[in-house]
Structure formats: structure tokens, C-alpha cells
Amino acid sequence: MSLQARILVVDDEVEVGTFFRCLLERKGYRVTVATRGQEAREAINDQKFHVAVVDLKLPDFDGLSLLQEVKKVQPGCEVIIMTGYSTTRTAVRAIQLGAYDYIEKPFEDISQIEALIDKALDFAGGAEERKKRLSTAEWGHIAARAGIIVGNSRAMNQLLSVAFKIARKDVNVLIQGETGTGKEVLARFIHAASHRSDRPFIPVNCGALPENLLESELFGHEKGAFTGATGQRRGIFELANHGTLFLDEIGEASLSIQVKLLRVLETGEFMRVGGEKPIKTDVRVIAATNVDLEQAVREKSFREDLFYRLDVVRLHLPPLRERKEDIPVLVNHFLNELAGHGTGQSIKISPEAMKIMMQYSWPGNVRELVNAIHQAAALCDGTVILPGHLSNRITGALNRFPKPGSASPDDRPEGSPSLAQLQNLVHSDDFLAGLEDGELPRVFHLLKVLEKRVLEVMSRRGLPCPPPATIEEMEREAINQALVYSRGNITLAARILGIGRNTLYRKLKEMEAGAKNNRL
């Protein structure tokens, strides 16, 4: 960038404008200072700027609106937002709207500001492809180390750029995304890009442990605090001191655990279970959830004050179906990974098989894609994965169930044509997989109606009907249905059943013990 680069500074504090003028003009840059939003608007319409440094809080204009106007009038101008700590959430929103980065007031490190402006000048005026290369060069090696495969989608590239910039800010982060999108991998990337990268990164799944065990896991316990506590044990908040704590499925934490988490985030102190002495900790918290925490706040199942403590910066991981252009990159990466892990040969994927994978909706996201690749590679007896090597779940959309009567005589079920048709439906792996999402609830309803009508006809004809389920069997079935409905979310399942979360855990253990006894 030429030393005659033009820089616009917008801040209602005269001292800030004077500071930037002195700092930048001695480097040969041409500086224009505006103290009001209207002055800035006039300036960007009269002159061309390479970088604009804009305060979020202006007396006559909203900083975000000014950012959008700068990017509209001069798309090549890079905007750096100035903000106080209390408006960090808004500053991150600015990055998502196109700001290059943000800096916090009061300024502490002048060299850091100079370096940031110099980097913004390198970006300024460049083509989008060049900007993407420069951006990826900053964080690409960190992403690779964290296990993130950088594809071609704009959404993922923008997400990683934002995550890289906020990683160095040392603020709490809330990651939202469906199951299997890679929330923990993104959390590891943020840790690796932060100044805490040489300290511990400790993940804990809040939905995998009962309340009493989760409390001990997080905060530790003193000897004799409860039955089985034979010695003192340090918790994760101690072990992660000066590092990063990743709280997965944060929406599963009980209200009492939420209270204790809030205290740590507010005071930086906690007490071990059974302890009396507060312990200091310096931990960055990254939380993740696949549920709507704002809805949980409205339903009073998640504390509003804790939500806002965690939601300083919110990142949304897009599902795989919204970034299908990344699928070929991911597929080839996982195949190369398999070859590098001793499969003995390099396996490719045929264009036909890739086309099917591009058409599939991937409800399990990247995790499901990995499993599909491993399964197809295991079934492949050559060096190329063909459509026949893919699971019925994936190919089902293209392989509709054949019409009745199309089966060969040897395969045709016995009985009347209607019964044969039902048997074909029951034994076809592809029938349900080939149905559209909107058709499945209709099928479920029809089966329920059919079951009821079959029982009525059997009763009228005097045929022996199946005995009714016992209370125990009905309870087991209700629990299983609630778990399926909630997709394994224990808190939601307990709420559906009208029982406490701990009660559901106890009943699940009883069911597991009963199943073991039956096997014996």
C-alpha cells in the first residue's frame, strides 16, 4: 500500500482524533478526522479512503449504520471499529457485517493498533479472492492443527475469520449448531488461536453426567464431601486455570449448576463440593448447544443472567446441507486420511457416488459424513467408491420402493396381494429412506390408525388379541419414545414425561439393570 494511503477517523472525542492524526501522519498517511456521523458521510462521498476507524458510539449516528454506508459507498475501504468492553457483542456483529476488526478503548498497546491498521491497508482495495487468501493465510495453519477442513463455502470462511479475530479478545463464546457440525472442533480452533494456546483445553459434556457428578467434575470435592469421596479431588475449573473450558450441551446443566457457573463467571471464584475456602480461577469459557437457549430462557429452564454471561460472542455453525459446496473437499480429505492411516491403498470416489452425496441432506452433518465415508470404504473391494457402496440411508432418495408385483416369483411373499404389499413395505430397507420429510409423520399416523383398526376387527371376529402391555412395559415404551422425540436430550425428555431429570436418570439405570438381568 502506498504511503499516501488515506485514512478516515470517526470519533466524537477530539483527543482520539488528534491521537490518530499524530500516530498516522508521521508514517506518511493522509488522515481525515470527523467528530460526527454526518461529517463522516460527507467525507466518504467526497474522497476515497483505504481504511476507516469508526467509533461505535456517535452522538448523531449509529456506528453499525455508518459501517454499512461506508461498505456500500466504498466497498474496498476496510473498517476498524472502536468499542468499549461493554459493547463487545455489537463489535462482533460489526465484523459479521463486513468490518475488518475491532479495537477496545482505552488503547493500551499502540504498536498493536499500528499493526492492525497496516494489515487493514494490505487488505484494502484488493479483490475478494486475494482478501480470502490473505485471511486464510492468517489462520489456515491453526485451523488445520485444530482439525478443521476449510472448504469453499463463504459461510465457513467468514465464520473462521470472525472466530480467529475474537479468539484473541479473551471473551466468552457461545457456539450454536446442530449435532455433528463440529462445535468442539471450532472451540479448539478458538483456543489454539488465543493467547491461552499453551495452556489446557478441557472439554466437558454437561448432558452426559448426572447433576451431582457434574458438580464434582466441574468444581472438585473435599475428602468426605459425600459417600465415596475418599480424598480431595481438583475439578475442571482448577485444572483449566489460565486455559479454556469447553462446556458442551450447556443447555443440559441443571438450574443449581447454572447458579454455580454464574458465580464463577462473575467473580472468578468457586468452592469445591464440601469445601469452605473460595478458590480463584482464570478460565475462558466456550459453551456450545444444539438447542435454542433463548427459548429455554423464556421457558425458565435456563437462567437469563447466565445466558448473557455466556453469550458475549455468539457463533453459529451452519449445517452441512447449507454448505454443500464443501462436501467434495470433506469427502476427499477423509478418504486421504483413511489412506494415511494404514488402509493400504488410496481410495477415490466416483462422480456418480459424489453426486448422490451432494443430493443427500446430511441430518447428522459432518459426523454422519465421516461415518458414511468409513462405511463405504470398508465395503469397497477396489479403489473407487461406487453408488452401491453407499448406505441405503443415503441412496434411498434415489431408490424408491418398487411397485407391488415387480418382485420375482421366488421372492414374492405368501398370502393375499394386500398382505404381500404390507410385507414388502416392512422388509424394504429403501421405502422409509426414500420418503420425503413431510411424508414420514403421515406414515406414522396411518400405522397407528391401522393398528387400532386391526385390533377392532380381530376382536369382532373373536380372534385372540395380543395382551395389553403391563405398567412397567408402558413406562419403558414412554421413556424410549420421549428419548427419540427429544433426540436424546435428557432435560427435554424428562419435561415431556412430567418427571424430574434425576428421576429419569434413575429409571434409565433401572431399565439398563433389568436388561442385563434378562440377558443373564
TrEMBL record:
The modification 4-aspartylphosphate is found at residue 55. Pfam families: AAA_lid_14, HTH_8, Response_reg, Sigma54_activat. Residues 149-378 form the Sigma-54 factor interaction domain. Residues 6-120 form the Response regulatory domain. It comes from Desulfofundulus salinus. CDD domains: AAA. May play the central regulatory role in sporulation. It may be an element of the effector pathway responsible for the activation of sporulation genes in response to nutritional stress. Spo0A may act in concert with spo0H (a sigma factor) to control the expression of some genes that are critical to the sporulation process. This is Stage 0 sporulation protein A homolog. GO terms for biological process: phosphorelay signal transduction system; regulation of DNA-templated transcription. The keyword Transcription applies. The keyword Transcription applies. InterPro entries: AAA+_ATPase (IPR003593), AAA_lid_NorR (IPR058031), CheY-like_superfamily (IPR011006), Homeodomain-like_sf (IPR009057), HTH_Fis (IPR002197), P-loop_NTPase (IPR027417), Sig_transdc_resp-reg_receiver (IPR001789), Sigma_54_int (IPR002078). GO terms for molecular function: ATP binding; sequence-specific DNA binding. Keywords: ATP-binding, Nucleotide-binding, Phosphoprotein, Transcription, Transcription regulation.
